[in-house]
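Entry 14. Ran structure prediction on the chain below.
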Amino acid sequence: MMNFFNPGEMLVGLARCFFMDDISTGLDSSTTYEIIKFLQEMAHLMDLTMVISLLQPPPETLELFDDIILLCEGQIVYHGPRENATDFFRTMGFKCPSRKNIADFLQEVLHYQLQ
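Output, structure tokens:
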């Protein structure tokens, strides 16, 4: 028999660090945004560390993260402040066009790395 942890129990417990894997599966982007916004507020208010994996987050959700880790084939391509990611890739020759949102740009850069 599998044991499932109730997220509510985790959040009111004594844990200071949370790891959540692909919590947006089956959710629309609006619901995902609301959940991540709540978790961001909680992390900031309670001084918690949260590591959350998301596959292709929409731009407004990506903007809620303080730091990001970008992986490509299991390797870390970037780890640092979200707002510095485009500058990091610019130094490597990848410039984000003004018409493109950052989430799509980062996805394209990682896709380019695979080729």
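The longest strand covers residues 75-81. Will compare against last week's run tomorrow.
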